[in-house]
Amino acid sequence: MDHFRNPRNMGEMKDADAVGEVGNPVCGDLMYIYIKVKEDGITEIIDDISFQTFGCAAAIATSSMITELAKGKTLEEAAKITRGNVADSLDGLPPIKLHCSNLAADGLKDAIKKYREKKKI
Ligand code: FES
């Protein structure tokens, strides 16, 4: 409830390096995950991250939590964050809301994928 009422890192990031975008076709919720990546030649670290979520309370709370989990991590570490990690970090979610944590994990993975695609070009 705290992450829903006081979401961390909420808002659009105008100068993001990549934006992950996911939606849940069943409920119609939509989420954007913005990442800013710092490179030192060897590692790529998520220097900043934010989100915009148009959805339910659980979707907002899981978005907020995943930004806290991913900030400061390498892209490899961040890509391994699962919906289970997100739900556990929130001390669990009601079973009916577990699918909402998919959005956050998938949104982050999509942002990382788009960042990597952009770097290849
Ligand atoms: Fe749609 Fe939660 S009800 S993500």
Summarize the entry for a quick read.
By secondary structure, this protein is of the alpha+beta class. It has helices spanning 2-5, 57-70, 75-79, 83-89, 100-120; strands at residues 18-23, 30-39, 44-54.
Detailed description of the structure:
A hairpin with a 6-residue loop joins strand 1 and strand 2. Helix content is 42%, strand content 22%. It has helices at 2-5, 57-70, 75-79, 83-89, 100-120; strands at residues 18-23, 30-39, 44-54. The model has no long low-confidence stretch (mean pLDDT 93). Helix 2 packs across helix 5 (100-120) and helix 4 packs across helix 5 (100-120). By secondary structure, it is an alpha+beta fold. It has a three-stranded antiparallel sheet with strand order 1-2-3. It contains five helices and three strands; from the N terminus they run αβββαααα. It has a single domain (2-115), classed as Alpha-Beta Complex (Sufe protein. Chain: A), CATH 3.90.1010. The structure holds FE2/S2 (inorganic) cluster. FE2/S2 (inorganic) cluster binds next to helix 2 and helix 5. FE2/S2 (inorganic) cluster (FES) is lined by residues 24, 27, 29, 55-56, 58-59, 100, 103.
**Helix segment count?**
5
Q: According to CATH, what is the topology?
A: Sufe protein. Chain: A
Count of all domains: 1
Distance between the termini: 41 Å
CATH architecture term: Alpha-Beta Complex
Total E-strand runs? 3
List segments where confidence is low: pLDDT < 50 over at least 5 consecutive residues: none
Strand order of the largest sheet: 1-2-3
**Alpha-carbon Rg, integer:** 13 Å
The portion of residues forming beta strands comes to: 15-25%
Bound molecules: FE2/S2 (inorganic) cluster
